[in-house]
């Protein structure tokens, strides 16, 4: 195993954050461009296509949840083994990653191919939109092997403090996607005009390019078959909360789409546009989540709970400041943000009000989304999962349904109220941290 590039036990918290976060933020910024660029060009091609992208988005989130969540489990387990000086066990954990990525991709591709027509039928009454959903959805899901492999290999590299190669890979992958999008969507330079199909092809080619770049350093020789079970148990004991947290987005966004569909297709489009921009504005928070998991896991393995607390509190401060900038954008320039994708007057009318209300949820969301990854890193999957379930199952969709009874304008209050309640529950759970005997996150 290579020498670690950052000392999680001794370096200052802010030094680690400022060293680790910028490469991750740059990589996630580029990653965000996948969906934003697709939506930008499709929005100039077809309003129906833009709605189709919003409908497929929950499935893409589920795919990312499986890939990234499994990678986070590998990342956290490796950081733990580094913390207790068992580098051979860390290498075994990394070796499980590639076979695991292959199995996850195969299962997801098969299921999505089969269910895509049904998913399209229950999501919209428009035959045009249904056809676009099936075309785009099948391509980005069935040919998603690049995303699965890249996600696993990236997390393996990040567990060792290597943030630069993953950043380079995602920059190149996104550049490929951005270049190919207009060529294949509009048929430039003599290429066939493929519309939404071209957007899907561009996305999967970009993902594959990123995977090829991290493959050499992210691939580790798989361990003996008898060692798979214990490693997979560790990976999913630590990674399941992240998978649950991210896959829950799929189900609550699907539920919110169903609620908004009772008003209009334009309302569904607004929600989809919000999540396009949310991906962009949540980059700092996503970077903090990625940074603190191996940092906390490493120090928790050494029973340094005081340092774990310090990492979390400093992350709250950084997250709140950065997310506050997003709040200002949603409050003061919502119309410009919406017009970037759509010029539909009804989408603009609904979206301006919705964006301003949702923007109020950003700062409390910095707290509500950092607590689950903290509990995940210290081997408390129940608390991590419970926060996610409370936020997505017991708050988002039920509150969305309740507020929708009073009208579309009230529906958007779901967001700030959900984040405030979840943050309060997280603080209540955190108050017990360090008062009980330290547990072991991984089976050694």
Structure description:
Helix content is 81%, strand content 0%. The chain is mainly alpha-helical and 444 residues long. The mean pLDDT is 86.
List keywords for this structure.
18 helices; mainly alpha; 444 residues
Topology, element by element:
Blueprint: H1 13-43, H2 47-83, H3 87-123, H4 127-142, H5 145-158, H6 164-186, H7 196-218, H8 228-261, H9 265-281, H10 283-301, H11 305-332, H12 334-339, H13 345-359, H14 362-368, H15 370-377, H16 381-404, H17 408-411, H18 414-430
Helix pairs in contact: 1-2, 1-6, 1-7, 1-9, 1-10, 2-3, 2-4, 2-5, 2-8, 2-9, 2-10, 3-4, 3-5, 3-8, 4-7, 5-7, 6-7, 8-9, 8-15, 8-16, 9-13, 10-11, 10-15, 11-13, 11-14, 14-18, 15-16, 16-18
